Amino acid sequence: MKFPGLRKIKHYFPVSQPKPQLPSFEVRPELDTYIVGLDQTIVDVVASVSDDFLQRYDIQKGLSNLVEHAKANVIYQELVAKQAISDHFAGGTIGNTIHNYSVLADDKSVLLGVMSANIALGSPAYHYVCHTSSKVDMNHLQGVAGDIGRGITMITPDGERTFVIDPSDMDQLEPDYIPTDIIAAASAFVVSAYPLRASGQPIQQAMHKALEDAKAHQVPVVMSLGTRHLVEENREQIISTIKNYVNVLAMNELEAEALTGFSDPLKAAEAILDHTDMVLITAGPEGLYLCGHTDDSVKRESSNPIKSASLADFNLYEFSRPMLRQYCQQPLKVYSHIDPYLGGPERIKNTNGAGDGALSAILHDMAANHFHKQVQPLSGKHEMPYLAYSSFAQICKYANRVSYEILVQNAPRLSKGLPEREDSLEEAYWER
To answer: Which residues belong to the annotated binding site for ATP?
Structure first.
């Protein structure tokens, strides 16, 4: 796999060794390094409409409207007839995340969910496959007779965005289509909180089985929260899931407030770390926070300017590497923050997917650590059971850079990887 950042030669994986087997697009658990994601497969459609259009279909402006499949088809066909559709994007929080992971790592990932058994030109499934990296293994998807989900973003002349959600068959994923052997050998399992609101749908049971499989085989579980309203409506269920299964939690500042009651990201992170091992909070123009645990015996002080906010000197140990709290004899909470890359883009073209991009960078670093431990088990990089390859500060830089690339393009998915990022003086701590 491609490592995140520039590394000294003794820490490189052996890319020059001949490969005895032909390349395979399908994941081989015994040979490959990969992550697994479970998602409600959905395609995002962007269209320009009038206020009259919304009124005619009884769609509430500026809100997210759940629409039954037949009505959504009528709406979609009229948009096609009027040539009002500007773009189709493969969507889904986890679909975006694992696609971006595969682009960044130039390596495999596995998508679990549903897919139309018969894919027609121009159908949601067609656009989903077209806009997903070929390194995402979709061989374990469950075939369904109907369509995958469709989310239509309707933009009125005043710039207001209104959403029409057509679930179709995206929640019909059965537990039988969760491959335990694939999850057991993964570097991480990633899921969003969205399936938790699909009451009575098979995807809830499928998600539970996947979480149980990951927990049983000590595979780190990463969860993205979704939206503020989702957290508010399902708060107790989400907190229970976090306590029982989740190691890394990703959210924006609004979702963090809904979960903890704290509007300050640092205070929210401090509270969340009582229930999980690491947390990513994206805070728009304030940048992003990455917080977690390390053992007091291996803490490393930062040479960056020390910051104070609601927590004094909060980034003092940001050169430390993340660990699962259960492996820390003396757990220490570590906080790192970074301002937007280059102050943020001059013109933001798209905010959808920026948080997913940051999460994909974290997953890449976690997978790199998993791979390096397999090929260099005696390296000083693994003197402790670290969760990631890099320090909190370095991962922040990487996540920040990926978010920037999403913000300056129209789509939530990367089309190409990033140029190699620069490593700072902190690497002297970790080069043995």
So the answer is: 282-287, 355, 400
